[in-house]
């Protein structure tokens, strides 16, 4: 549904195209940092604040372990959240270890530029 008129239509089309290109580029180049969490989780909120300076270097995916479809994760991590996986591999738990995160992100960034 288009409701723009005149030059606004062209502007909307180019902005949307840019948005789609950025999304597809992000999906192919940025690693996925999965945060296993629940609500409430003050340590998870704190961890997300610590991650803000890195937000352009990964896609943050949050998994609420209390949802029925995530019962496997609940059983595994119910006493350990926040827990982080990077590209599906365990990375850290309880608090963000920025040096460990930085090291792993650099490693993935170097791999993606090589090949």
UniProtKB/TrEMBL annotation:
<protein>
    <recommendedName>
        <fullName>Glutaredoxin-like protein</fullName>
    </recommendedName>
</protein>
<keyword id="KW-0813">Transport</keyword>
<dbReference type="Pfam" id="PF05768">
    <property type="entry name" value="Glrx-like"/>
</dbReference>
<keyword id="KW-0249">Electron transport</keyword>
<dbReference type="InterPro" id="IPR036249">
    <property type="entry name" value="Thioredoxin-like_sf"/>
</dbReference>
<comment type="similarity">
    <text>Belongs to the glutaredoxin family.</text>
</comment>
<dbReference type="InterPro" id="IPR008554">
    <property type="entry name" value="Glutaredoxin-like"/>
</dbReference>
<dbReference type="InterPro" id="IPR052565">
    <property type="entry name" value="Glutaredoxin-like_YDR286C"/>
</dbReference>
């Amino acid at each position: 549904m288009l409701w723009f008129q005149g030059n606004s239509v062209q502007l909307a089309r180019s902005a949307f195209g840019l948005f789609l290109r950025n999304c597809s580029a992000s999906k192919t180049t940025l690693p996925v940092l999965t945060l296993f969490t629940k609500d409430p989780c003050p340590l998870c909120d704190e961890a997300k604040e610590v991650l803000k300076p890195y937000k352009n270097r990964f896609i943050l995916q949050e998994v609420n372990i209390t949802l029925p479809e995530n019962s496997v994760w609940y059983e595994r991590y119910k006493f350990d959240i926040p827990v982080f996986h990077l590209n599906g591999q365990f990375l850290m738990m309880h608090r963000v270890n920025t040096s460990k995160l930085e090291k792993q992100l650099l490693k993935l960034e170097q791999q993606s530029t090589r090949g």
